[in-house]
Amino acid sequence: MGTVYSPSLLPLLFLARVAGLAVAVLVLIWALAFKSSFLTPSLDQQDLLYAVLHPLLMVIGFILLSGEAILVHRWLPGSRGFKKLVHLWLQGVALACGIFGIWTRFQGKDGIVANFYTLHSWMGLVCVSLFAAQVIT
């Protein structure tokens, strides 16, 4: 039937999920509250939405969902095939969040080229590409 988790892991799993939810909420608060410090002040509502979605989708996809996909083999009851299917599904949703998060950065007035002047953007593109290669194979 597979590995069954110890009841002593339940509080730890609960704490990990609460911490993940707190991280997502804090990123959303950070993106909305400090929009004038990392975004140009003349953003319209659509540009603001895209700018807030980028960090939020990256955190939800690559940290929370891929982390949950890693843990699914330890806490989810069921057969090995079922666990692998849930793992694949979570990785796919994480990849979709990452691709959509990158897409949101290209929707601003600056265009695509303006988003590739930093190491952050190039490393992000490499990470998403490697993640996609891992999920596809």
Pairing-aware structural class of the strands and helices? mainly alpha
State which percent range the strand residues make up.
under 5%
String of helices and strands:
HHHHH
Number of helices: 5
Average the pLDDT over all residues and give the rounded result.
82
- Please, how many domains? 1
Q: What integer value in Å does the Rg equal?
A: 18 Å
Q: What about the largest sheet?
A: none
The rounded distance between the terminal residues' Cα atoms is 26 Å
CATH topology grouping: Four Helix Bundle (Hemerythrin (Met), subunit A)
Low-confidence residue ranges? none
Quick one: overall form? globular
Task: Provide an overview of this structure.
The chain has one domain: Four Helix Bundle (Hemerythrin (Met), subunit A) (Up-down Bundle). The longest helix has 31 residues, at 45-75. Helix 1 (10-33) runs antiparallel to helix 3 (45-75), helix 3 (45-75) runs antiparallel to helix 4 (80-105) and helix 4 packs antiparallel against helix 5 (119-136). The protein is built from five helices and no strands. The mean pLDDT is 82. The chain is globular. It has 137 residues and is mainly α.
